[in-house]
Amino acid sequence: MCGIIGYVGKKNSVPYIIDGLKKLEYRGYDSAGVSILQEGKLVTVRAVGKVAELEKAALLANPKGTTGIGHTRWATHGKPSEENSHPHTDCSGEIVVVHNGIIENYLILRTKLISLGHKFKSETDTEVIAHLIEENLKHIRTGAPEERLLKAVQKTNKEIAGAFAYGVMWARTPDYLIGVKNQSPLVVGIGENESFLASDVPAFLQHTNKVLFLDEGEVVLLRPGQVTVLDKTGTEKKVKPVKISWDQKTAEKGGYDHFMLKEIYDQPQAIEDTLRTARADFGKILGLDTPALRGLQNIHIIACGTAYHAGLVGKYYIEQFAGIPVSVDLASEYKYRSVPHKTKTLAIAISQSGETADTIGAVKKAQELGFRTLAICNVLGSTLTRICDSTFFTHCGPEISVASTKAFTSQITSMYALAISLGLANGNLSKSSFDKLHRELMRLSKAMGETVRQEYPVRHLTRKIYKADRFIFLGRHVNFPIALEGALKLKEVSYRSAEGFAAGEIKHGPISIIDKGTPVFMLMPQGPLFEKMLSACQECRARGAFVVTITTPDGEKEAKSVSDKVLLVPQVNEYLQPVLNVVPLQFLAYWIAKRLGCDIDQPRNLAKSVTVE
Ligand code: M6R
Question: Is the pLDDT reported for residue 287 higher than 80?
Fold first, then answer.
């Protein structure tokens, strides 16, 4: 969480930094701040709340300078307040630091620094970095200021522990910034006569698409248009910039009121782009040849939140098409449970951002157990893609809304492609069955195009139900995880109470919470479990529920007879149906949140990528 940006160039850095912070706001928005080096002095402006508040304060203070750093915060240590906002300074006020992550040994360091006479102004763990650099600088008296700062930073890095990325600026080193990456995201942009440091590429994408991805433990020195990377040992390392193909437009709202709505509408394209890669041989992506693919005996899927729901759908796919037993774990649980060691196991980590600390921790555990690891990820150069043995990229473009939509459907699509490829490789699927499933997959983007046209009926429906206290979502088999996802989406953006259940389970307890008028959403495409879902509708209706069925045209007539409202999605094969069925639920969450006046793209208490455990 938290977003960092740094600029060093020939122009006034303030607009670059404020604009970059707006692009990073999805990472946290409790407070924001900026420090600018103005005529040899640091001018710092900070504000509680969103970047818009900082922008107002910065307009008033009007700092100007060609070197600056900024930060948008998701509070971990210390409440959201101006004192706890970044950038944080040392005692002299000459060193400023912006930081993302957690300094685990900050209390020990803080106590030590206080005993040495340092005065702390905030409750944050970040502030120890600024004071430590100050302390270390006292003992490095020779060399140019840039060299001294670097040595002090390197010494500091040996003293701090945890997962962190930070940027530092010293009043005595104009046109110079240092960035440090250690298990938290940090990327570098190289423009003409200007360089950028940021937590994520969209922060500077409108200025340059030349990006350097750093490895763990690396330090980067930025000057205008010139960047030096030092590896863990402090040795200069040649790194080739990567050209990012996303354009700024993709990273912006494109005329929609919210990123969430835009991203729901992006889904046909996201699936199309993801499938372009899925045409490739999965064996190659996994780095395994056909005999090795054949030999896979177990698959562990690990993920969090929405990505976990994609993993739950993936289990049905792999077991059905490849006949390999699959376990699906919440990454935060996998890391701490006892996982029996089994040979020929593949661990698949699903993550939009590739920076989720829990998922990264779980992958490390899988690696310690000797498992091969595959990332299903959306972000090039992210930590997950760097630590896993191989990566399959979901090509859905930047997902900015905190509530994940297009990444989810791209993840499920990828799991399907993986499952049928594994099935073909291990002989569980005949070539003709594979071809049929593959053809159906390749038609999915078109069906998604028809599905997103269904916004209006959902929007209309929400007028009637948006004030309900609680919402229930029910599905079976591959649609059970969609019920969980529908509930999560609604909770996240509308703050309403919502729960998803396997439809067969309601009689074992949950039916007691259904009351007169409780909206119950039934995921029931025509197919093998349709009749069972009809019974579930009757059971809920008998308790006074307001039943909404999500079904396919073939099921419409019967669904109408047992529900108050029918929402239609196109019919695709039974296993691909969840990819479409979730769409009305995404619109539902969006429209309920909109009618309730919630902050849709940046829901309270949440951050887009959760880089702390
Ligand atoms: O970036 P990741 O996919 O690893 O993120 C995992 C979860 O934090 C994420 O899916 C979260 O649940 C979303 N806010 C859901 O909309």
Answer: no
Residue 87: cis peptide before it, omega within 30 degrees of 0: yes
Tell whether ligand 1 has an atom less than 6 A from the beta carbon of residue 609. Answer: yes
Residue where one domain finishes, among candidates 233, 252, 271: 252
Confirm whether 585 is domain-assigned. yes
pTM here is: 0.80
> CB neighbours (10 Å) of residue 291?
10
Q: Looking at the domain assignment, is residue 448 inside a domain?
A: no
Q: Is residue 141 part of a domain?
A: yes
DSSP string, 383-403: HHHHHSSEEEE-------SSS
Known catalytic membership, residue 608: yes
Mutate which of 304, 333, 606 to test ligand 1's pocket (most atoms within 8 Å of Cβ)?
Answer: 304
Domain of 547 in residue numbering reads as 454-613
Ligand 1 near 304 CB (within 6 A): yes
Q: Quick check: is 92 in a domain?
A: yes
Per-residue pLDDT tens for 327-356?
Answer: 999 999 998 898 888 889 999 999 999 999
Catalytic residue among 50, 262, 365, 608: 608
Same domain, 488 and 340: no
Is the distance from CB of 521 to CB of 588 less than 8 angstroms? yes
CB distance 610 to ligand 1 below 6 Å? yes
421 and 471 part of one domain: no
- Testing ligand 1's pocket by substitution, the residue of 353, 379, 582 carrying the most ligand atoms inside 8 A of its CB is 353
Residues 529-548 pLDDT 10s: 999 999 999 999 999 999 99
pLDDT per residue as tens digits for the range 441-464? 999 999 999 999 989 999 999 999
The yes-or-no verdict on residue 510 having pLDDT over 90 is no
Q: DSSP letters of 468-484?
A: -SEEEEEE-GGGHHHHH
Last residue of a domain, one of 442, 464, 491: 442
Whole-number Å distance between alpha carbons of 14 and 35: 9
CATH number for position 195: 3.60.20.10
Indicate if ligand 1 lies below 6 Å from the C-beta of 352.
yes
Our answer to whether residue 56 is catalytic in this structure is no
Same domain, 350 and 469: no
